[in-house]
Structures are given as C-alpha cells and as structure tokens.
Amino acid sequence: MNSSNLFLTICRLLGVAPMGGRGPIRWIHCIWCLFLLLYIWIGSIWKCIDFKVEIPTIEKLLYLIEFPGNMLTIGFLSYYAILSRPCAQEVELQIHRLINGLESKVVKFIYRKHDQRTLNLLGATIAFHCLCFGVDIGTYNCEWWTTGFSNSVYNLPALMMSFGVLQYVHPLYFLWLLLEQMSRRLEELKSRQRPPKGIAKPDARYETAFAVLVDAGGDSALLLEEMRSACHHIDQLHKQLASRYGIFLLLNFFNSLACFCMELYLVFNFFESPLWEESLLLIYRLLWLLMHGGRIWLILSVNERILDQKCYLCQLLNELVVCSSRLERTLNRFLQQLHTSLAQPPMACGIVALDTLELGGFIGVMMAIVIFLIQIGLGNKSLMGVALNRSNWVYI
Questions:
Q1: What integer best gives the mean pLDDT of the chain?
Q2: Minimal CA–CA distance to 262: which of 155, 362, 369, 157?
Q3: Whole-prediction pTM
Q4: Is the pLDDT of residue 263 over 60?
Q5: What pLDDT score was predicted for residue 27?
C-alpha cells in the first residue's frame, strides 16, 4: 500500500472521505460517518450547555465558537462522505491524466516524490494529535471518563479537520510538481539554445544549438504551445479545487482564527499570573496554537508554491532567445496567460485569496481581537478593584 492509499484509508476511517462504489460496505461506511458526525455534534452541544464558568460574554462567545465551527466544518466533510461524492474526484482524475501523458521516468519521479511528501505529512499529523491526546490525559490526571469526553469534543474533531485540510493539499502538490517539470523543460530548452563552451569552429554541436535558436522545424514553438496548454489546464484545475473546497476552507479559516485569538489571550493570562501546577494545560494551549496556525499556513503556503513556480516560468520565458516570429507569438501568449493567472489567484468563496500575502490581514485581525480581549480583562479587573475599595473613597 503506497502512502496515497494509506492516506485515503485513514480519511475513510475518520469519516471525512467517501468509500466509493456500491454495496454493503458503502452503506456500513455511511452509517459510520453519520455516527461520528452525530457523536461529535451531541458532545459539542452538551459542552456548550454545560459551560458554567463566569467570564465576560465576549470571552465566552469566542471560547465556545470553536464547537459550532467544528460542527459545521465536519458536517461539510461528512456530507460528501455520506453521499459518496468526493469533493474533487473528477479534478484528481484530470490531474492523473496530465501526469500520465508525460515520459515514464518523469511519471515515476512525480509519484515517488508525491508519495514521500504525503507520508511526511501523515506522520507529522498523526504524531501531533497523539501528543495532544497524551497531554489531554495528563491534564485530567488519567481520569478516563473525563479525558475521553474531552478528546471527543476537542481532539477527534481536530484530527478530522486536519485530514480534511490534507485532502485539499494532496492534489495541489501534484499541480506544483507538474509546474516544476515544466520549469525543468524550459531550462533544458534555454541551455540548448547556446552552443557548448570551448568550440573553436562550427561543428555539429554548434549547428544543433543554432537550429534550436532559430527554431528550425518549429519544435521549440510546438513545445511552448504544449506547455502553454498544459499550464492553462493546471490553472483551471487549481481554481476548480479552490471552488470545490471553498466553503470548507472559509469555515476552517474563521474557526482557526477565532480559536487562535482565544488561545493566545488565555496564554497571555497564564503568564500574567502563572500557576505552574497547570503547566500541562499551558502546553495544551500552545499545541492548539500551533495546530490552528499550522492549518492556515499549510493552506496558504501550498498555493503560494504554485504561484512561485508560475513566476519562475515567467522568468525562464523572458530569458529565452527568440529568433522566430512564430516562437515570439507563442512566447507572448504564454507570458500573457501566466501574468493573468498571477493577477487573479484562487479564492475561497471569493472572500479570502489563497496567498501568503493574506497572512498580514490574518495577523492584523488577530492582534485587534486579542488587544480587545486584554482591554476587557483589564477593565473588569479595574471595576472589581473599584468595587472592593469603594468604602475607602474620599468624596469631595
């Protein structure tokens, strides 16, 4: 079993990927997905109802917003899993057709590199959530009923959402590898346009380089036209993936941003008046910060890598020597297509651009919310101090 099949099997066990096909196994899988969804929903609703801590309303809202956010996000994934409608099955099939149209050694290289990347992400994700599970057990002093319920409403939904994010990232890495192969072919074409160094007089190698330079036979123009068509296809697949996962990505962004702000505020409160006997809870909060920040960064960074590869393609195209009008026209069309693609990056539901430049906006919103929460906390402490010292006031 390769890493892609292992990844799909784990997603199916977690109820966030469809089984496919027909028969009793599919129905059993649908019942299992529905059971997991209802189990998380009931646990999350009970957690919200049972929350009795006396804190300001805005803090309570931000603290509890994680649960409805988890419910909606997992509900989106379970909907497609239960209906056996993969979010992007046809898109992935088109990606595999593009890959299989390449040379056999290139196809093997792409699949090998993708399998290695998938295995690394799988190992990191599972190890991280196992660590969260262990810290949760330690936080509740091995009280199995309490820690079981805690993991059900916190760690299990987080694990399912993490694998939902990996389902989106999985085909995008294929697109990046395809663009990387295009860059290598352009580098080869660029090197063939120049005669080898050390030639004292024209020979067969010089004539070959000159033929490539003037595009004798139109091979270079044909190669660029094929690459332009493939790049356009990749761009359309990239946007289709963003469209299919748009609701999930948007829910994940908002949920992770709200949770990140609340956890950062709670970490600030801990260091303001530290209770070191609760250090395991601090570690848990730091892990939660890492998880939510990591999800946002992973989604944006994998899209950024695709955009960076397109920028590199533009650079290589501009460095090519053009001595043919046909080659010049093809080159200009290719460059115009890439510039249009870079000017219109994929967006989640037309709201959030999938680009690391959006991190500045996320950080700005996060800091505004955290500062607002800190001000509310300081204001409440001041009011409590006023109430305690009111009898000592001197009225003038």
A1: 82
A2: 369
A3: 0.84
A4: yes
A5: 87
Average confidence (pLDDT) over 260-271:
87
CB 192 within 8 A of CB 299: no
Report CA torsion sign: 35, 36, 37, 39: positive
The amino acid present at 118, given as its one-letter code, is T
Distance in angstroms (rounded) separating the CA atoms of residues 66 and 73: 10
Query: pLDDT tens, 343-392?
Result: 888 888 888 888 877 778 888 888 888 888 888 777 665 544 444 443 43
377 burial type by CB count under 10 A (0-12 exposed, 13-18 middle, 19+ buried) = middle
Give the amino acid at 320: L
Q: What's the pLDDT score for residue 108?
A: 92
Q: What is the spatial distance between Cα 111 and Cα 99, in angstroms, rounded to a whole number? A: 9
Contact 341, 214 (CB under 8 A): no
Let me know: does 169 contact 241? Beta carbons within 8 Å: no
Residues 47-69 pLDDT 10s: 888 887 777 777 788 888 888 98
347 strand-pairing partners: 353
CB 121 within 8 A of CB 169: yes
Which region holds residue 17: left if phi is over 0, alpha if psi is between -120 and 50, else beta? Answer: beta
30 closest CA partner among 84, 89, 86: 84
Which residue's entry shows tokens 């196992």? 130
Helix (H, G, I), strand (E, B) or coil at 115: helix
C-alpha triplet 352, 354, 356: angle, nearest 5°: 110
3-state secondary structure at position 201: coil
Phi, then psi, of 353 in degrees rounded to 5:
-75, 135
Name, in order, each residue with C-beta under 8 angstroms of 376's C-beta and a sequence gap of 6 or more: 56, 58, 59
Of 13-17, 260-264, 387-391, the one with minimum mean pLDDT is: 387-391
Q: What's at 178, amino acid-wise?
A: L
